[in-house]
C-alpha cells in the first residue's frame, strides 16, 4: 500500500481490518517498527514526561483492554500519537473508550487533535509534501501499456473490415478491451496518461457504437456514442471528437434521423481534425442530403469531400474502420448519385471504387458489398436486370453473420427499384434479396432492437 502511495492512516486501517490488530498495534505495524523501536522513540521524544518505556510496556499498551495488558495513561497516549504522527483519537477505538476512566476521557476530549510543535511542524509538513509527491509519481499504467492498448484498438478497428472476421466475436473482444481501459481509469495515473486512456476508450466505444448499429441496435449504438463523446471531451482530442461525431452521424442516418445525421457531420467537420475523417464526414453529409433528394446540398458536400481529400495531412491514428480511403469515398459517391437519379455517374463511381478495392490486399467486405449493390442499382436503372443480378452475386454469397444492417438496408433500397421492373430476372432477384434479408446478421444472431447490448 505504501508503494501505491497510500497514506499511513489507510495502511493502519487495513492492518486492523485484515489482521484484527488493536489500533495502537496497527499504527506501529503501519510504520514498520518493532516494539523496541517504538519504545526508544517514546523515550527520546518525551523524556521526563512519561515513565521510561520498553518493548514489554509497548506490547501491553497495545493489547489493552484485552488480556494481560496495561492501561495507557493520557501522557502515554499523547506520546504515542506524537511518535506515530497521528491524533490520540486514531489510537483509540470504542472498546478503549468504554474502558478508560471518565477523568481520562474528559481530559482527552479537552485536548482535541494533537498537533506537532516547533521544528516538528516544519518536518511534518515536508514529510506530508513528500508523501503526496510519491502519490503523484505513482501510476497504474506506463508508456508500454498505453502503446499496447492503442495497438490493440488499431487491430480491432482493422479486423472489423476483414471478410474473415466474426462481428459478434469481435464485439465481445472490443467490449473486453474497453472494460480494461475503463478499469485503469478508475485507478491513478499521470494527467497525460489519463488523457491517453480516454482517447483509447473513446475509439473503443466508437467501434462498439458502429458495430451495435450494424447489428441493428440503434438505441444501444447511441448510448455507446454518448460515452465515446464524453471520452473525447475528457481527452481533449479534436480528431477523436470528429470520429465520434462521424459515428453518431452514421447511427442517425440508418435510424432515419437525417437532420441529425447532417448536423453531426457538420459539427465533426468544424473540429478541424487531422487524417481522413473530414473526407468521411462530408460524404456522410452528402449521403443524408441525397436521402431527401436535396441535389445541390448533396453535390456540394461531395465537392467538400474531394477538397478534404486533397487537403488531408498525415495518416489516421487508429486506421481500419477509422479511416476513409478513396474506395470508401467512391462508395458514398455511387450511393449519392443513385439517389439523385444519376445512374451513369453512380456506375462510374462504383467501378472506380471496385477497382481500388480489388487492388488492396485487405478489402473491407462491407464497403465492397455496398459498391456491388450500387453497381447493380445503376445497371437496373439502365435497363439491365441481368447485369444487376450478376453484380449482386458476391453480395448474396455473404455468410449470414456478415449480412450487416447497412448492407441489408441498401439491398432494400434496390428492391424498391426492382418492384418497378418486370421480367424473370427481376423476379428472381427480388426473391434472392428477400431470402438475404431473412437471414441477415441481426435476425441470425437474435439481436433485434430492444434486447439490449452490453
Overview of this protein structure:
With 454 residues, the chain is mainly α. The protein folds into two domains: 8-137, Orthogonal Bundle (434 Repressor (Amino-terminal Domain)); 144-444, Serine Threonine Protein Phosphatase 5, Tetratricopeptide repeat (Alpha Horseshoe). It contains 23 helices and no strands. Helix 12 (218-235) packs antiparallel against helix 13. The protein starts with 7 loop residues before the first helix and ends in a 10-residue tail after the last helix.
Briefly characterize the structure.
The chain is mainly alpha-helical and 454 residues long. The protein is built from 23 helices and no strands.
Describe the protein's topology.
Layout: H1 8-19, H2 23-31, H3 35-45, H4 55-63, H5 74-84, H6 94-99, H7 102-111, H8 119-137, H9 143-159, H10 167-185, H11 191-214, H12 218-235, H13 238-254, H14 258-269, H15 277-291, H16 295-311, H17 326-339, H18 343-358, H19 365-381, H20 385-396, H21 405-418, H22 424-438, H23 441-444
The top level CATH class name of the largest domain: Mainly Alpha
Report the principal-axis shape. Answer: elongated
Radius of gyration based on Cα positions = 34 Å
CATH topological fold name of the largest domain = Serine Threonine Protein Phosphatase 5, Tetratricopeptide repeat
Please report the number of helical segments: 23
The largest sheet, given as strand count, sense and whether it forms a barrel, is: none
> What is the strand tally?
0
Q: Tell me which CATH architecture of the largest domain applies here.
A: Alpha Horseshoe
Q: What count of domains describes the coordinates?
A: 2
In percent terms, what proportion of residues is strand?
Answer: under 5%
What string, H for helix and E for strand, traces the elements in order?
A: HHHHHHHHHHHHHHHHHHHHHHH
CATH superfamily of the largest domain: Tetratricopeptide repeat domain
- Please give the alpha-carbon distance between the first and last residues: 34 Å
> What is the helix content?
over 70%
* Unreliable spans: 447-454
**Helix/strand-derived class?**
mainly alpha
Tell me, rounded to a whole number, the average pLDDT: 88
